[in-house]
């Protein structure tokens, strides 16, 4: 985190998959104490592992410690659900995303929400409203529309292909209009599996497991007839307990063409070209890199961050 801040990264997001990764809010607090500028938050936190009121209280507490530097990414989840024996079909509910985003927004602004029990609750300890941006995550059409309707920002997990991204943005825009806003009122970020190395093939293989994770979710457009059987097999055989590891067995089901469809991966020159393609979709204001935990023989995350900052973003102008 200190390296990311020194390299000029704007925001750092930490995964909330409690059986695979260390505890989110403890880790975020350690990062907050070690940094001075970079924004911090869950990317993403989910409803089936901690109650939304717990998340709101944690976010407001951290924002008291580092005012103005906290963000909250919310979604219906994938790996956290699967490690608990739930399927994405069981958890991917429009109402869930809406309830998470709006409840956290209201609670951190010192407003009350109504619990399933029928009683109202609020953060009684909170002395003044905290303005904490809530980013709603989505990949398929309905989730993206909901994210555009309820989020202060939107996290799109929808490939790096400009054609697909524009299709996704059309759904985000529809959601924004439903809430009386325009697309430009939202801070829209693109989640992108990422790896940069001098060895382009190694970089692609490092990102392959994260691409496998992304392919569990729908895109704003249907998968091609060629790719659909591969995606269906991957979804059947995906091991959520290897979710964060570059050497995950399920990465073997992901061909290079799907890595290129979903990830920013390759040599610095190749990734610069990929970022330029994404930048043609001007409504996307930020790219959120998702480097895998490296494992032996893969690219170190420190190297990915440094090469991306110095030889991709640093040479785009």
Summarize the structure in short:
The protein is of the alpha/beta class and 317 residues long. The protein has helices at 2-6, 24-34, 52-65, 79-83, 88-91, 94-108, 141-150, 162-178, 200-214, 228-237, 256-262, 268-279, 301-312; strands spanning 11-14, 39-42, 72-74, 113-114, 120-121, 134-138, 153-156, 187-196, 264-266, 286-290.
Structural account:
The chain is an alpha/beta fold and 317 residues long. The protein has 13 helices and 10 strands. The strands form 3 sheets. Strands 3, 6, 7, 8, 9 and 10 form a 6-stranded parallel beta sheet that branches. Strands 1-2 form a two-stranded parallel ribbon. A two-stranded antiparallel sheet has the order 4-5. Strand 4 (113-114) and strand 5 (120-121) form a beta hairpin. The longest helix is centred in the middle third of the chain and has 17 residues, at 162-178. The two termini are 25 Å apart.
């Amino acid at each position: 985190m200190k390296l990311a801040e020194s390299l000029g990264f704007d925001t750092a997001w930490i995964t909330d998959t409690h059986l695979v990764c260390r505890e989110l809010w403890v880790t975020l607090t350690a990062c907050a104490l070690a940094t001075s500028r970079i924004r911090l938050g869950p990317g993403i936190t989910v409803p089936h592992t901690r109650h939304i009121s717990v998340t709101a209280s944690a976010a407001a507490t951290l924002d008291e410690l580092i005012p103005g530097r906290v963000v909250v990414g919310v979604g219906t989840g994938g790996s956290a659900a699967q490690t608990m024996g739930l399927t994405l079909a069981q958890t991917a509910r429009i109402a869930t995303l809406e309830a998470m985003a709006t409840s956290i927004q209201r609670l951190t602004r010192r407003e009350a929400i109504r619990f399933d029990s029928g009683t109202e609750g609020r953060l009684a300890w909170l002395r003044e409203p905290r303005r904490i941006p809530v980013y709603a995550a989505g990949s398929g059409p309905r989730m993206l529309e909901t994210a555009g309707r309820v989020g202060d920002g939107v996290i799109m997990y929808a490939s790096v292909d400009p054609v697909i991204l524009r299709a996704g943005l059309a759904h985000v825009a529809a959601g924004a209009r439903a809430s009386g806003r325009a697309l430009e009122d939202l801070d829209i970020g693109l989640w992108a599996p990422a790896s940069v190395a001098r060895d382009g093939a190694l970089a692609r293989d490092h990102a392959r497991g994260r691409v496998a994770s992304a392919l569990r979710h729908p895109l704003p457009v249907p998968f091609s007839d060629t790719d659909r059987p591969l995606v269906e097999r991957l979804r059947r055989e995906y091991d959520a307990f290897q979710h964060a590891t570059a050497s995950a067995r399920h990465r073997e089901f992901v061909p290079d063409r799907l890595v290129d469809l979903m990830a920013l991966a390759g040599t610095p020159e190749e990734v610069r070209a990929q970022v330029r393609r994404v930048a043609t979709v001007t409504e996307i204001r930020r790219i959120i890199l998702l480097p895998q935990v490296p494992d032996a023989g893969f690219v170190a995350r420190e190297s990915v961050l440094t090469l991306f900052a110095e030889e991709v973003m640093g040479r785009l102008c």
